[in-house]
Amino acid sequence: MPAYWISNYREILDADKLAAYAALAGPALVEAGGKFLARGMPEQVYEAGLEQRSVLIEFESVEAAVAAHDSAAYQEALAALDGGAVRDLRIVPGA
Predict the structure, then answer these.
(1) Domains located in the chain, CATH noted
(2) Residues 6+ apart with CB under 8 A from 56
(3) How confident is the model at residue 58 (pLDDT cuts 50, 70, 90)?
């Protein structure tokens, strides 16, 4: 069953650190089997929606998404981010 990595950027504190993270994270997650489905600022928000950057990545399973997060390559990306953003990251199984 597929799983989805959903990341919302509540606050960007350092754009340079975020850029360094993105340069490493994208390739690491794709290499781990992730497929980027959406990323960027919302075109429209409703109800309690927030104007914040969001990323949606599909993996073949929850286990694959967790393995991608825990991989050495992604951990290197997180080290580059080094507090440059406040994010909400969750892995959700597909329906």
Answers:
(1) 3-43+51-93 (3.30.70.100)
(2) 4, 5, 6, 36, 37, 38, 39
(3) very high
